[in-house]
Amino acid sequence: MSYVLSLLVLLPLLSAPVVYLLTRLNRRFGIYASLALGILVLALAGYVFWDVYATAASNSLAPGQYILQEKYSWISFNGFSLDFMLGTDGLSSPLLFVSALLTVLAIFGSRKLIDHHEAEYYSLIFLFEGAIMGVFTSLNLILFYIFWEVVLIPMFFFIGVWGGPRRKYSALKFIIFTFAGSTIMLFGFLYLYLGMGSSASFDIPTLQAMLAAHQIPASVQYIPLLASFIGFAVKLPLVPFHTWLPDAHVEAPSPISVLLAGVLLKMGGYGFLRISIGLFPAASAQYAWVFLILGLFSMFYGAAAAVLQKDLKKMIAFTSINHMGFVLFGAYATLISGNLLGIQGAIFQMFTHALAVGSLFMLSGYIQHQAGTREIPLLKGLGTSMPKTAAILVLGSAAAMGLPPFSSFLAEFMVIAAGISASAWTAISIMVPVVTAGYFLWMIKRTVLSPAEPGHEAHDMDWSDVAGFAAYLVPLVVLIITSYLVLTPAEPLAQFLRGLA
Amino acid sequence: MLDYLTAAIVLLAGTALLLPLLQVLRGKSGNLAGYVLGLVLAAALVLVGLFVLYPSSVSWSGTLLIPDQLGGIFALVTVGVTLAVTVASFDFQKSASNPVYYSLLAFTALGMVLLAYSQDLLMLFVSWELMSLPTYVLAGFSKTRQSNEASVKYAIIGAMSSAVILYAISLAYGLTGSTQISAVVSRFASNPSALAGVATLLFVAGFGFKMSIVPFHMWIPDAYEGAPTTVSTLLAAATKKAGFIAAIRVLLAIMTITVAAGSFFTLANVFAVLALLTMTVGNVSALTQKSMTRLLAYSSIAQAGYMLIGFVAFSYAPGSTAASLGLTGTIFHVINHAVMKGVAFLAAALVLLQLRRADLGAYDGLGKRMPITAFTLTVAFLGLAGVPPLSGFWSKLLLILSVANGPYAWLALAAILNSAFSLGYYAWIIKRMYLDEGQSTERVREPFWFVLIFAVMVGLIIGIGLFPQQVINFASSAAGNVFG
After folding, report:
1. Global pTM?
2. Which chain B residues touch A183 with a CB distance below 8 Å?
3. Cα A144 to the chain's mean position, in Å?
4. Which residue spans within A175-288 are E strands per DSSP?
5. Mean pLDDT split into 10-residue runs, chain A, 501 residues
6. In chain B, what residues touch A175 (CB-CB under 8 Å)?
7. Is B424 exposed, middle or buried (0-12, 13-18, 19+ CB in 10 A)?
8. Which end of chain B is more exposed for a tag (fewer CB within 10 A), N or C?
C-alpha cells in the first residue's frame, strides 16, 4: 500500500502547529518555513499528478479506477463501519496539484499584504490546505464530509480576522450559508446509507461497484441527489445560492480570495462530478436538463452581473460564478449527449479557472495596496503609472476571458462543444465568452488605457512579484500545448461517468 | 469481599458526612474541603472505572443495583463532571461555608452513582432524591436575590417532578405488585392497560423535568442563570444526565412493549414530537439570549432534543440496527455533551469570576484577554454544533443516521437543520471573541485549576473526535444492556 496520499493530507495538517511556533519565534523565518513546507506539499502533489498521468498514458487506468488507494478501518461496530479511505484519479489529481500550487502562491503573495496575527494566519493556511487535500482524496462519504467541514473553519477566520471593513458580517454569512448547505448534504449521505439495507457502505468504490451491478435503485437516489445538490450548489456557487460569494470575496484579503476562488469553489465542481453524477447517476441523468439549464443560467447571470460591478474584486468574483457555471454545464452536457468533451472540459476548466482567476484576485490586492482603491472608475492610467501591473492585468484578463494561447480557451471551447452536441440551442452558451470579453475589455479600457491623472504617483510592483504572477500565467500557456497532462487522465473518468448514467 | 463499587459508595458517603465537620475551623481551612473532595472524587472515578473494567456483583444490594456497563458510563460521566466542578470551585467558591458546599456536591455525586446502577423503582427514587435535594441548596448558594429565586423555583419544580415520578411508581406497583423494573415491564407486557400507559407518560413527564425536554423546560434558564455557575455546570452536565439514565432504564424497557399498540399515540411518536419541539425551541430561544448562562441553558435544552432521537429510533424499530445505532448515539451524546457543555459552563464561570459580567458583551475581544478560555469555548461550541472532527459530530451522526431513512426521516432532517441553525449563535459568540474589539485588551489571569480542567476537557473533545472507536464500543456495549 502506498502512503503518498495520507502523507499529502497529514503533512499540511502537521505543518500547521510547526508553522505557528516558528512564526511566533521569528516572523521571517516562519514565512520561509511556510514557503518551504508549501513547496514540499506541492512536490508531493506534483508526484501524484504525474503518477496519475503516467498510469493513464500507459492505458492502465481503467474507467472508474482509483489509484494510490489507502484504506484503514476507523470506526466499526454493530454493522456500522467507517474507513479512512483515500485514493485519486483523473478528477482529483489536477485539483490536488493546482490547490498545492495556489497555496504556495498565496503564501508568497501574503508576505507583503498580511501584517498582523501572522503566526495564526500561516498555520491556518496549512490547516486549510490539509483539509482541501482530504476533500479531494477521500473515498469515503463521511470522511469527505469531515474534511469538507474542516475547510470552513480556517476560511471563517481568514475572512473575519484579516478581511476588509465588513469582514465580520461576511464571515458569519459565509459560515452559515456553507454549513447549512453541507449539513443538508450529510443528510443525503445518511439517507442513502440507510436506504441500501444490509449491504450499506460509505465507501465510494463500493458504492460504485453496487451501482454498476444495479443494486442502488433510482428511487433511493433522488433525495440524496437533491440534498447533495444543495451542498455543492452553495459551494460552486450556483445562482441563486451564490449571495455569500461576492461578500466573502470583497472582504477577504487577496491571497485568501485566491484560495477561495481557486480552491474552495472547486470543491463544488468536484462534488458534482464525484458524487452527484458518480453516485446518483440514474437520478442525475433523469434531471440532467435541469442541471444543464441551471449551469447555463449561472454562466449568463455571472457574466451579466460582472458587467455592472464597479469594484474590481467584485467583478472578478462574479466572473468566478460565470466560470464555475461552465463546470456544471459541461458535466451534464456529457450525461445528455455522451460527448466526453463535456466532463473533460469541466475538469480542465476547474484547473484553468483556478490559475486565471487566482492571478486576478492577487492582482486586485496589489492594486488596492499600491493605488489605494479597487474602484474601476477611480483607477486611471495604470498603463503609464504602473506599467508592470497593467501588463499583468491585461494578461490575466486575457486568460480569464479565454483568449488563446491561454488554455482557458480550450477548456471553454470543449465545454461549449459538448453543450452543442447535447442540443443545438445550447449554442447560445457561446455568447457567454462574448459578454466576458466585453466587460474585461471595458475594464481594461477604463483602467489601463485611460489617461493618467496628474500628480497621482503610484508604485509599481517589483520583479519578484512579477515572477509570482508568472507562476500563475505561464502554466496556462504551457497547458494549451500539453493539455494531455490533464485530459488524458480525465478521459477514463469521463467514460466511467458516462457509462454509469 | 468488598467490590470496587461498594468502595466508591462508602468513600463518597463518608466524605459527604464528614466534610461539614471542617466547618469547625471557621474559614481557616481555606480550600481544604475542596482538595479533600477533589481527591475523593478522583479516587471514586478510578474505583468506578475499575468496576467497569472488572464488573462483579454487588452482594449487599440484593436486587436494588445492577452492575452493568450502562450504569458504568453514567457513573463515570457524573462523577467526572462533579470532579471538574469541584476543581473549578477551588477558585470560584471561596466563601467561609465552603465545607458545606463540597459536602453537598459529594451527596449529589453519591446520588448520581446510585441512580446510575439502580434497577428497582424505589432505589431509583431514593437516589433521585439524594441527587436532587442537595442541588436545590447549591442553586441558592450565592445567597443573592437571583440565586435564591433560582433555588426556590428549582426546588418547587423539582418537588413536582419527584411527586409525578412517585405517583407513576405507585401506579406501576399497584398494577404489577413489584418495584423491580424488569418485573414491571414484563407484567405491563402481559397485561396491557390504559393505566400502564398513564404511568408511562407520568414517567416521561417526571424524568422530562431533569432531562430538560420541552415543555418541561421552563425552570432551566432561570435556574442555570441564577445558580452559581459551577452549580449550573453540575445541573447541565451531570444531573441532567441522571434524568437520561432513569429514562433509559425505565422508559426504554417499557417502550419495547407498547409500540405494538398501532395507534398514533405510540411512545415513538410522543418522543419524536418531544425531540422536535425540544431542539427547535432550544435553538430558537438560544439565538435571542443576551446572557451567556441563559444561552448555554437553551443550548443545553436543544441538545436534549438530539438525545431523544435515539429513543425514537429505539422505540419504532426495536431490535433493529437503527435502534442500536440510535441508543448508542444517545449514550455517546450524553458523554460528549457532558464534556462539551461542562467545559463551556466552566469557561463562562471563569469569565464571570474574573470580569464580573455574564452578558455577551463581556465576550467581545475575549480572544485577546483570556486566550485559553476563548479557545476552550471555541472548541466546545464547534463540538456542540457538531462540526467534525470533534466528538459531538460522531454522536450526532449516529443519532441522525438512526432515523435518516424510514418513517422518521423528517426528524433527521430537522435535527440537521437545527445543527446548522445552532451554528448561527455559536459562530456569533466565536465572532465576538475573536473578531470584535473589547473595551479592554488587558490580559486577565486564568487560574491554574481552570486551565487544567480546560486542557483535559478540550483534549477529550478533540481526542474522542479523532479516535472515537473505544468510546463508541463502550456506548454500544452499554446500549446492549438495554436490549438484553
Report:
1. 0.90
2. 386, 416-417, 419-420
3. 16
4. none
5. 89 93 90 94 95 91 88 82 90 94 92 85 94 95 93 90 86 86 89 79 89 85 91 89 87 90 92 92 91 92 91 91 92 90 93 92 87 84 85 92 89 92 88 91 89 72 86 91 92 89 74
6. 423, 427
7. middle
8. N
